[in-house]
Amino acid sequence: MPGKLKVKIVAGRHLPVMDRASDLTDAFVEVKFGNTTFKTDVYNKSLNPQWNSEWFKFEVDDEDLQDEPLQITVLDHDTYSANDAIGKVYIDIDPLLYSEAATVISGWFPIYDTIHGIRGEINVVVKVDLFNDLNRFRQSSCGVKFFCTTSIPKCYQAVIIHGFVEELVVNEDPEYQWIDRIRTPRASNEARQRLISLMSGELQRKIGLKVLEMRGNAVVGYLQCFDLEGESGLVVRAIGTACTLDKLSSTAAFLPACNSPSKEMKEIPFNEDPNPNTHSSGPSTPLKNQTYSFSPSKSYSRQSSSSDTDLSLTPKTGMGSGSAGKEGGPFKALLRQQTQSALEQREFPFFTLTAFPPGFLVHVGGVVSARSVKLLDRIHNPDEPETRDAWWAEIRQEIKSHAKALGCHAVVGYSESTSICEEVCILSASGTAAVLNPRFLQDGTVEGCLEPRLSWQPGFFSIGSEKGEVDFFPQSQDSSSLLGQEENLPAGCGFCHIPYDELNMPFPAHLTYCYSCRKQKVPDVLFTTIDLPTDATVIGKGCLIQARLCRLKKKAQAEANATAISNLLPFMEYEVHTQLMNKLKLKGMNALFGLRIQITVGENMLMGLASATGVYLTALPMPGGIQIAGKTPNDGSYEQHISHMQKKINDTIAKNKELYEINPPEIPEEIIGSPIPEPRQRSRLLRSQSESSDEVIELDLSHGKKDAFVLEIDDTDAMEDVHSLLTDVPPPSGFYSCNTEIMPGINNWTSEIQMFTSVRVSRLSNINLTNQTLNKNFNDLCENLLKSLYFKLRSMIPCCLCHVNFTVSLPEDELIQVTVTAVAITFDKHQAVQTTKTHVEKSLQRASTDNEELLQFPLELCTDSLASHPFSPAKEHLESASSNSGIPAAQRATSIDYSSFADRCNSWIELIKLKAQTIRRGSIKTTVSVEKASPLTEGHFRQRSAPACANSTVGVVKMTPLSFIPGAKITKYLGIINMFFIRETTSLREEGGVSGFLHAFIAEVFAMVRAHVAALGGNAVVSYIMKQCVFMENPNKNQAQCLINVSGDAVIFVRESELEIISAQQPVASCQPACSGGEIAT
Amino acid sequence: MTNELDIFVGNTTLIDEDVYRLWLDGYSVNDAVGLRVRSGILEQTGATAGVLQSDTMDHYRTFHMLERLLHTPPKLLHQLVFQIPPSRQALLIERYYAFDEAFVREVLGKKLSKGTKKDLDDISTKTGVTLKSCRRQFDNFKRVFKVVEEMRGSLAGNIQQHFLLSDRLARDYAAVVFFANNRFETGKKKLQYLTFGDLAFCAELMIQNWTPGAVDSQVDDMDVDLDKEFLQDLKELKVLVADKDLLDLHKSLVCTALRGKLSVFPEMEANFKNLSRGLVNIASKLTHTKDVRDLFVDLVEKFIEPCRSDRWPLNDVRLFLNQYSASVHSLDGFRHQALWDRYMVTLRSCLLRMYHD
What we know:
Chain A has 1082 residues and is of the alpha+beta class.
């Protein structure tokens, strides 16, 4: 009996009128936990009842404490008929179960009804007394902290990052039970909400147990999802990364964690060949491997050498999956020996993190993804969710082998998703293959304590033993020497270096020596699912890049449908990838971060939406242009058309380079050395898809031997491609957007943030849809949505939309639903925080910040003299004009040196003529924007002081999908917020139609999240995510229903300005600034 | 391809002041979009008409949802659904309760009933204020009236407390409530020249001096009704014009004091008895509800128009009224000095404010 839950119902306010006669309400409250229910007295005739109840005490197991939500029901007492329910509040008491989080939940909660929405508020106080229980067979995992944040939470340090944890539970969906036919929609919705709440609690507890098993104390990057499989049931699944976290108490505690890894690595005893040049040597035979023995406990599993037996046996174009059988017997002993490292003992060396402690990420291979089409069948026994487990195990296995093919032993930025339509389900998983620094993955004690997994996952375990050979990672023979070498390198390029062997590449790729260190090989482009590493050096700013694609599909049933989808998938992947690559080239960038490809299945179509943030990595080569080639060279007008297109593309590239300030220093070719003669190709994406079987179709995404960046427009399809490339409009000046945590190139955030969700549902009017019109419609939908966002948030300029998260669903035949959640953050363009190391970058950056406002003027003044560049010159002028005007003389010289384009010099005189005017205009613009901003900031200050002045107003709770709050320091994590709501209406028109209905519902969801955070004592939610927004309508019946699932981390933050005051008084307490992430990115 | 659903929900509710103004002014979404296009916003921002339409719809939807809360502003402060910074909340409330001069002049002093509401069509046509906006303004008047009608304490204070309005706006509402409650006639043609400001000024003085609240701050309806006892007592003033000696004495006192100081002295001397009779008769008749309603008509007819026709400058009116009220203190036979002051101090200020073209 290890816990006592105490609940007190204080008061209610703004209750709805339940008695028409008196215009009042006789309210009372039922408090339920598990099977125990308490009631308050009836408070007669009031809309603002003051119950002030006694403490209701529940004595419960901690297992129940974790699983069950506290359920508070407000009712209207009726003497003659049944009492009417006003609404409910579900409170997740999990945050009270670990010592460092909240100690009490106390505050006003919106009373929620699934039919009427929020109906007043109730003031509740909840406390938990936990008794220590040392029973080692316990089923609870109280004390394990959960974080949605996909990096190490700001006020903690990672002692060990243990690795992947996953779990899923299944149940029947109450909506599809027979009883649903006779009960009210309200009862059915509440049953569903309660069940999902229970299942989430159970899931979290089970994951917690796994973490304890691994000797961890926390789950970071916890992502829980629901699969509404309809008839076949309800699946709640979660993945996360188990860690051992230490709370940071002071700066002293933080710094070692930050800086030590590289130093400690030196001490790792490698008995290795010290020759640093193994790298460029020819392929070593597998036998050579045997000469290298590894210290099992401290092995460093970097894998760039050619000794990778698996790879050397894998055909170039192969993806290396399931290659276990090919391994020769003689190697097995050796390989087993090698599997001793901490990572390799894991079934799945996956990490859901997207940002890492410095030094953690050694190399990045590229994106690995796997999809599988499954037919759903009824889950017969909810207690043994074997089928679903097996499905995911299969996919994970595939991901793992892809990573291996890329010479990587781990997958970071890992995520899983599903798309369900009727009885077909696409399971997807993706991540970034990487080589990690083992320092964080293990300590001396870890080895022995990795006990076999518990029996609830027999499937996984058997896979491990059957394919034991697969679960290893060949060791690099030169890791120590490499390490030594890398320590001398300038920081920020190491992760770009290829982890695979250049002569046995898993796919054809174009390699060059790293543009930063000139010592290691780098690919020409890099795609990843993670955030930009903090130490990476980039040039200019990043931007959101999206690939959008629709494919029609015949309506079909069951098997036939699944086959049709499986057949379409590879083409979709290929095209999405091509689009991404083309758009990246068009932006003049060479790397994608935060890549997320979503494939959605509908009745008669498939949709693909890929979002990522493009950047220019200094370490990678400058991207080549895009060439257009026609197939019918004899046609004169056609030629002309082609050359026109080509010019447009070239102009766009030049314009984008200016826009995103990509001015890489030009490097003489001889320094770089001749490129390695490999066929260029456009793929870094490893993919595969399989259907119900173990058969894996390998797909080579490269374009054979021809130059990858030639676009052939020999048919209308290709024309469409080119057009769609050019129709993407850049955001208006003063706006930037990215889907990663922070925007590369912006580091001077100011404190104003605005998180928002925008939903659009579009009906395809055309009955005779073709792929082209569909693509165009979808493209327009997304582009218009972005335009609307820019317009709506124009008062925040200059600002950046961060963590832009698009979700597509196909709720009905002709409906496309796009949901976007993002946060707009203002930044100060005048005070760039200069943390860059090189002189060049400094001046460039300075120039860029200074000319931002100037770029807002599409100058028609100077275009005539430069016919060769009809689009770009104006901005080029402006840029150099501003760098000229805004920078002190010494820096001016450098900036001119490095931005030396020929035509700029030619128009130098015009520039000087222009200068005066531009500056004047620019300054006017600036003052205007300051004026605009001031009422907001003023309001903000007032609002911030609000919580201090007692109960008069509602405290402000910030919400953000990011893991930090600009200009503030997170001082405490209060626990995870994971909420699921259903809202239904039978009076859709009266509630303002579908838009009115959903608008109100989302506003209510935000309100409920804020109320829970406030009750925990917090003032913000970080890493907020709307995981699901399922909307269904039936306008003919005047009905609609929506399900929303959100999660995030409740935190307390303190403004840095306030912190300074505190620390001035109290010099001891001060830690790493919360927004360090923002400062490092340049 | 059409957007069936198109929403934007911010954690902090976005309020566009321009769109709010258009919404309050009662424009439909399409009209508002048209007006916004004409304001040149598309050129400024590079947005498309579609974007503007969607944005306008979104704001209108938000305002529609907020409207319910704006009816009881304290709820707006305590609700949890819309996170709005306090400064913005104040702006929302203040603008929502603001009213048009043209509209308020039409309904001032009218009964805030369904009957008047039916006339809103005509008022809308006459004033050029959209019907929707007229309805909002009328409903605001009615709502405020209902809440504070039977409340103790200062009228403006109550309004401020229950509707969280600015000091200025609360006092204007106090005037509206006071006029509606006493049904003062303000619509007559000869009263058209009076602005709402003039009438609100008068109302404020009357509330200060002529209501039960002026003598006792613990009475019900203290600020909305005129003090019955006071009105009854005003009959006593009749003696000032009924008693010929008193009237003559009064006249001579005033004339002696003002001789050489007024540019219109002869006219004043000639008209003194008429003016005095007018002012005193107004006072003595205030026991009848009908005459209370006609107070402003009477003031204009009996005092302002005669003076205006003789082209009295404002300063002469001021000198006259000062002397006229002060001289009564020297009339030995007159015993109701306090009553006279309570009546005349207010009346003098009102008349001076109303004396313009």
